[in-house]
Design brief:
heterodimer; A: 255 residues; Rossmann fold; 10 strands; 38% helix; binds adenosine-5'-triphosphate; binds magnesium ion; transmembrane helix (chain B)
């Protein structure tokens, strides 16, 4: 059974084919990793899933339903949450407020109730807070709750972004380079966190990653792409041994 | 340093963090309520202006400080509120108690329409668009003929609430105070609930706000709506304070003054709007005291007030971008940790590199 399905999707920026007739599918409860040299189109795939871009052709389905009818802010309601390659946090808000925004989809627009803080609000706020605290504990962020995000060290900011996505209680989590910019210790920690996300929270993970050590450790399945095109898929070692993949990486280095 | 111990999640949600904080706020409220006992009419009127400007400032804070949409047109909404209220009162005989909320709502709807149009704009374009709205509104009111009184203006009827005439300084003072406190509470409630967080999210990162489910265009328009409601409310109250309104009362200069007000007060905080209102209303009074001490040639020259205002503003932008409130936080901290103060406490750690952003 496959769950998230990307089918013959293409996208071009001007003359540049960023994604070229790409297909893959992700199974529930797995960690699916996308690798590829710089500029391969990995982040663009995420942006396509999240409806930031419209594919020129092809279809993206989740749980059998096409996502192409959804507007970008509706994607989360399908249970798809994400992080960004270049951390996109709410810089001037506290870590806690960042996480509470993650709960956005679990509420409704009710202006009067909010402006007058009618009785239901307190109950709702406590519920959001309880969920946020669960994630804070899960990711060991206790010490930073009330700190302004802009003041936090890089590693913590990275974790905060992951926490914010988890607070939304997604079914599938898209992580764009979770280890980039982290120290070796932090990267090891990230590997455990990703395993826990899959095992304990039962959330499917799709990640883009360059650090092969991390990829080998946590991936159930790996997809390699280059110049927007499919190269290989399989287990981490199968993909790394693939001659096309090796050529793509070597070609990238030579260029 | 006083460390804040939190014992319950409710502490972060409730209006007051703890008893000490509740005590201070209630004390301030009592002093404000008792002010008519020890201040004369002149100062009460001045304070009334502070409260009214603070309401308009809170509106602008919601729009610019929280949702991140800069507006050079806030005075246009104040004007719409003032005119709607005055016209409802004098032309249609609507009771005051209905006319004021109605005027605020009308202003809000105009704001909503403008928000729908301006929602896609950023930075400079938004600044120009809102500035044009200020100019167009002034023109429309000026050209409104008998309906708006044109450039001759309109006299504003007195306040009458259920047959009680609010005709003395202390009465209008208390009325303005009540609405001012109401506006603060609403803003605070907005900030501690879902919509308020959505506005902050949009201000700081539209892409990720969207990825978490906020309909960015919708909430931007909502910010315009709320901001206009506050401005309309302030406009209605201001009309009474002026007794007579003309389009020029709410010109472009006034819009810029409101924007400067929240910058000086401290952008992005409720305190900022309040401190800014005190600053902008009381500055002329303070300057008139200062002028007595200065040589006649300087004091009587025409541009003195504008010059002083400009210099102070420049000072803030250069040395204290967090505004009066930011300065207050630092002074407060200084006394709390005395004598261990170090300037570095407030320096941002730059432990990360911001690379290209996905927009
Ligand atoms: N908004 C855009 N406009 C124009 N070109 C773009 C845009 N976004 C991406 N590209 C181009 O599309 C190609 C794929 O970019 P993408 O960001 O998906 O690469 P990536 O695989 O994530 O690379 P990296 O490992 O460096 O993050 C690149 O050549 C990039 O320059
Ligand atoms: Mg990328």
């Amino acid at each position: 059974m496959s769950w998230l399905e990307v089918e013959n999707v293409s996208l071009a920026f001007g003359g540049l084919k960023a994604v070229d007739n790409l297909s893959f599918s992700v199974e529930p409860g797995k960690v699916f990793t996308i690798i590829g040299p710089n500029g391969a189109g990995k982040s663009t795939v995420f942006n396509l899933i999240c409806r930031i871009y419209d594919p020129l052709e092809g279809d993206i389905r989740f749980g059998g339903e096409s996502l192409l009818g959804a507007r970008p802010h509706e994607v989360i309601n399908h249970g798809i949450a994400r992080t960004f390659q270049n951390i996109e946090l709410f810089e001037h808000a506290s870590l806690l407020d960042n996480l509470l925004i993650g709960r956005f989809r679990h509420g409704r627009f009710s202006p009067l109730s909010e402006l007058f803080f009618l009785p239901g609000q307190l109950r709702q706020e406590l519920e959001h807070r309880r969920k946020a605290e669960e994630v804070i504990e899960f990711l060991d962020l206790e010490g930073y709750r009330h700190a302004r995000v802009a003041d936090l060290p890089y590693g913590v900011r990275k974790k905060t972004e992951m926490a914010r996505a988890l607070v939304a209680s997604p079914e599938i989590l898209l992580l764009d380079e979770p280890s980039s910019g982290l120290t070796t210790e932090e990267t090891d920690d990230t590997a455990f966190v990703i395993e826990d996300i899959r095992e304990d929270l039962g959330i499917t993970v799709v990640m883009i990653e360059h650090d092969m050590k991390l990829v080998n450790k946590v991936s159930d399945k790996v997809l390699a792409i280059n110049e927007g095109r499919f190269l290989a898929t399989g287990s981490a070692s199968e993909v790394q041994d693939d001659p096309d993949v090796q050529a793509a990486y070597l070609g990238g280095e030579a260029a | 340093m006083r460390v804040l111990f939190r014992k319950s999640y409710k502490q972060d949600i409730r209006l007051f963090r703890d008893r000490t904080q509740a005590f201070w706020y209630l004390l301030f409220l009592c002093i404000a309520l008792a002010a008519p006992l020890f201040l004369d009419g002149y100062f009460l009127d001045e304070l009334s202006f502070v409260y009214i400007y603070a309401i308009a400032g809170l509106g602008l804070m919601i729009l610019t400080g929280f949702s991140g949409q800069v507006s050079f047109g806030q005075a246009a909404f104040v004007a719409i509120g003032a005119y709607a209220h005055t016209i409802l009162l004098s032309r249609y005989g609507v009771p005051w108690i209905l006319s004021l909320p109605l005027a605020a709502l009308i202003t809000g709807l105009v704001g909503l329409a403008i928000g729908r149009i301006c929602g896609r704009m950023h930075g400079l374009y938004l600044a120009i668009a809102t500035l044009s709205i200020a100019i167009v509104t002034e023109r429309l009111i000026g050209g409104g003929g008998d309906f708006t009184g044109g450039h001759r203006g309109l006299p504003v009827p007195g306040i009458d609430i259920f047959g009680i005439a609010i005709d003395q300084s202390w009465k209008t003072y208390l009325l303005n105070l009540a609405l001012f406190v109401g506006a603060i509470l609403m803003t605070r409630n907005l900030l501690r609930t879902r919509s308020g967080r959505a506005l902050i999210a949009i201000r700081d990162s539209e892409v990720s706000a969207r990825s978490l489910g906020t309909n960015v265009a919708f909430y931007k328009a909502y910010a315009f709506f709320l901001s206009a409601v506050f401005a309309g409310l302030a406009g209605g109250l201001l009309a009474h304070a002026f007794y007579y309104i003309t389009p020029e009362t709410f010109g472009m200069g006034e819009s810029i003054r409101l924007l400067l007000m929240i910058v000086v007060g401290g952008i992005g905080t409720i305190y900022g709007a309040i401190f800014g209102a005190f600053f902008i209303v009381l500055l002329p009074t303070v300057l008139s005291w200062v002028k007595v001490l200065l040589p006649g040639a300087i004091a009587t020259s025409g541009g003195f007030d504008s010059l002083a205002f400009g210099m102070i503003l420049l000072g803030f932008i250069l040395f204290e971008p967090d505004g009066l409130y930011g300065r207050w936080v630092k002074i407060h901290h200084y006394f709390n940790v005395f004598p261990m103060y170090k300037r570095r406490s407030f320096q941002r750690q730059k432990t990360f590199l911001k690379t290209e952003r996905l927009k």
